[in-house]
User: Fold these one by one.
Assistant:
Number 1:
Amino acid sequence: MESKPKRARKKAAKPSKQQPEQDSSQDASSIKTRVRTPAVIAFGVVLRELRQRKRLSQDAVASLVDAETEEVAAIERGAREPTLVMLFKLAAALDVEPSELIARMERKLQ
């Protein structure tokens, strides 16, 4: 029985020390999550107040807006900036107008 010649394995290229290796799990939305501006924090406070006033859990709100509980929690902490679509979904879940969420947030900022 004749053996086949072994193929040389190619070594994986090492990341350059000059350029940091990028995490492929990071996308544009995860970059936004690190920005804690006063407006994002104020929105989170408003969201938490309204959610608690309605006696809803974060899990219940997440279910109503078709999101993960952690996403709602991150928005409330001011660790994640909600998208415009999410703003409308949250408003509907809390039975308020989107403009009311923004108005309450603006009052918090004054």
Number 2:
Amino acid sequence: MATSNGIFVIENNDLKHHIKQGKSNKDLNNPFVRDLRRVGSNEIWVFTDGGGINVYNLTSKNFKYIRQNARIEILEQQVKKLTESISKIT
């Protein structure tokens, strides 16, 4: 579940895990999560308000962070909706 305080992983109505902002690659780089999208079988893209896109690898359980670059333009690092197909970006 995406929230303004990170991601809550809920299974069978029980809170299993809380992923929040931190300084390691196992943490979000911004706590305000706008949306989550599964990409392929191994990634979850986390769209934040201020931290760009945090890409979570389900195998390594690590994040990588996408910010402004030549391929993806993120206005002030705020991502509210992804308007193009994710497969075209990756």
Number 3:
Amino acid sequence: MKNNFKPINNALANILKKYNLNDTYALEYLKKNWSAIDKTISIHSSPVAYKSEKKELKMKVKNPQWKNEFIKNKNALIQKLTKTFTQIEIKEIEFL
């Protein structure tokens, strides 16, 4: 008897792509695991949107002072995000 089973991750990837849900899935993954990035970062910010075609993350920041800190350290933050969330490609961040 031939085994016709395919790995579930392939099926999930196909469904997400077919129904254009990759961005939604990535954002929900980021929200659920945001505390893994860094305690200070996760306390003062949260992910609110992700666009895979631009590889852009939009982050809501607690106040203007923290927004300035994040802007100053944007490249380091992108590196940290890329290292922490290896399956989501992030090349740009917009701070809200």
Number 4:
Amino acid sequence: MSRADARREYEDRKERQRELNRLRARLGRLEQRIHDLETRQADLKVRLEELYASGERPWEAETLNRDFDSVRGELTSLYREWEELSTALDE
């Protein structure tokens, strides 16, 4: 292997490592966002159950339902992105 080839190989390894580090950092941020949304979703679920059980403040239940649906939609998207990133890191 020539010196130029060795240098190119070294640079390729460094670039791959930088890319892996970027993916890992992105995955970490994504996992934190998922955790935050899952916590919010659980809180919304409890609050909705309490509102439905009491039969009071139906307007508040409507708002919470919209929030719950929004969180669920975002989580679906984030789970998909998490799967893609995890697969990319496994390769």
